[in-house]
Design brief:
By secondary structure, the protein is an alpha+beta fold. Helix content is about 40%, strand content about 20%. It is built from 5 helices and 5 strands; from the N terminus they run ααββαβαββα.
Length: about 150
Amino acid sequence: MKRIIFLIGVFFSSQLYALTTEEFIMKMNISTVGAMIDFDAKNDPNNQLGRPNQYLQKASWADTRIDPHDFSEENADEINKLDPAQYKGGTVEKFKNVADLNRRYNYIKNITLSMPVYNQYMYKKGLFLLRLDKEFTPVQAKEYEKELNRLVK
């Protein structure tokens, strides 16, 4: 019995530490990521990062297919002044456990059902919640879902 508990613990701890949200974005096979930010507890726009029963990591990115900003190197100063909450693209959040992930997923889903203006694509796998701007086409959103399934084991 102790061996089974130990193996389960190893599985979940490897899931928890195997891939960060920043690495997730960097490893996606999507060439239209224009800029990204890896949030911490001080700059998380929702003030949830690291709080009890919330996500442990969060990163967002802009996708040049839907974000109107110029993300070229020549425009780096202007991009660095942007509020990351203005990025049009996606966010990935990583949780300590599936219960916290499902609670967050259901919370956001309930908001978007009652206020469609906040609608978004959402996919979850393992300990990750992938949230995508509603301006993506369904085909573009599926590209991201495919990457989630490829990267999160």
